[in-house]
Amino acid sequence: MDAPDATAAQRTTLPRRGTGAAEPRRSTSGLHDSDYFAVFGAAAASLALTWLFFSRLAPFSGLLGFVVFAYVLFLVLYAILVSYDEDGPAVRDRITSVIVHSLAAVLLLALVFVVVYTMWSGRKALPHLNFFTQDMTNAGPLQPLTIGGSRHALIGTLIQIAIALALTVPVGLLAAVFLNEVPGRYARLVRTVVEAMTALPSIVAGLFVYATAILALGVEKSGFAASLAISVMMLPIIIRAADVVIRLVPGTLREASYALGSPRWRTVWHVVLPTARSGLTTAVILGTARGIGETSPVLLTAGYTAVTNYDPVHGPMVSLPLATFEFVKSPQPTMIARGFGTAALLLVLVLLLFVAARLIGGRAAGELSRRGVHRRVVASRRDKRRMDERRTARGLAGVTAGAAAMSYPAHPDRPEHPGTGPAQGVDGS
């Protein structure tokens, strides 16, 4: 009998690619083809049975009832189909996954519907250049779309949201840092007040600023008063979101900074805030989205005007949401088209602000911008030049010390080189 191949018996590594049959990839997904068949089969069966019930068997009617009945029937049929291949926990997991994905699809469809409907309804006003470059000074309800625009509302929105951000971003970030770095009873009280203000109705914020700033302090209706009302709405959103983000920063980073001898303020400035930069940007975005679309506080505090006002302290100043509200109240089709065009402009403005915020602060922790990388390179070159100069200076000092040691003995009684001491003469005698 021939001896077995020693090489084949001792080989413990996998065969090289191309020497044998390729190993099939193993799928790590929890979904299989039967799951997709079950989803589509349950959907088709639920639609067919729902149509049969609504048209033949039962006196049901209405689109909403049709959708609800079909969805409930779909869940029941899908659970039955999945139960043939899976056990109880897997069936519940599949049902929960379908419900979550269905809710996400509904929200996405609602968002798409709002955006598409707004853009489609404002298609008559958006193509005109004067809609972006003119205000409503010379345009009335019966004027065509070639006259007038929403320039005054766009400029007013930018001024108001800029003032509101200047007020809320520093205060909101400082409050979030305080809630995380200085725990105590007062911090718990502030967190409770912030959570309560998150659900504050916008009309209450407008009434608060109207009563305190306009009636009590004598501030006239202006863009500044509207910015104060918008700040009241933005502040709890920014504080709450920033508080959650800063709380997620690992405590080991703080401990490492404290171990290196950094004080608390330097740890917060150089460790905590850069680590949570992306989340803090999201917090500012959420607050901006809440404030830029407010109508009730602006209606009570800013007034309404058809003229472009660049002064946020004096005179009424209109914003895009308020202009949309005033335009769509008119029964004239041209004014309604201007209203939807203004709403579409507001959507585009919010999108641009979100993109700008992501570009500015959306980098990961420790990732530097181009300017930061340039500053880091310049600082590294400067440090290298300084170390080279110091090393050169040390080398010259060493050479000088060596030359001096060769010329002069270290001690007059013990000459370093024989034959050159004071006890011998010049001729060595």
Question: What's the structural blueprint in terms of helices and strands?
Answer:
Layout lengths: L5 H5 L22 H25 L5 H21 L4 H34 L8 H4 L17 H31 L3 H14 L3 H15 L6 H25 L3 H9 L4 H12 L1 H16 L3 H6 L18 H9 L4 H29 L8 H38 L22
Full CATH superfamily name of the largest domain? MetI-like
For the record, the count of structural domains works out to 2
Proportion of helical residues? 55-70%
Strand runs, count: 0
Please indicate the percent range of residues in DSSP E strands (runs of 2 or more): under 5%
Give the radius of gyration: 37 Å
Could you name the CATH class of the largest domain?
Mainly Alpha
Q: Report, as a whole number of angstroms, the end-to-end distance.
A: 99 Å
**Tally of helical segments:** 16
CATH architectural grouping of the largest domain: Orthogonal Bundle
Instruction: Identify low-pLDDT runs.
Output: 416-429
Q: What is the 3D form?
A: extended
Instruction: Describe the sheet with the most strands.
Output: none
What is CATH's topology name of the largest domain?
Answer: MetI-like fold
Q: What letter string, H or E per element, gives the SSE order?
A: HHHHHHHHHHHHHHHH
Report the average pLDDT across residues. Answer: 81
Structural class call reads: mainly alpha
Structural description of this entry:
The protein is extended. It is built from 16 helices and no strands. With about 425 residues, the chain is an all-alpha fold. It has two domains: about 90 residues, no CATH class; about 230 residues, MetI-like fold (Orthogonal Bundle).
Give a brief rundown of this model.
This protein is an all-alpha fold and 429 residues long. 68% of the residues lie in helices and 0% in strands.
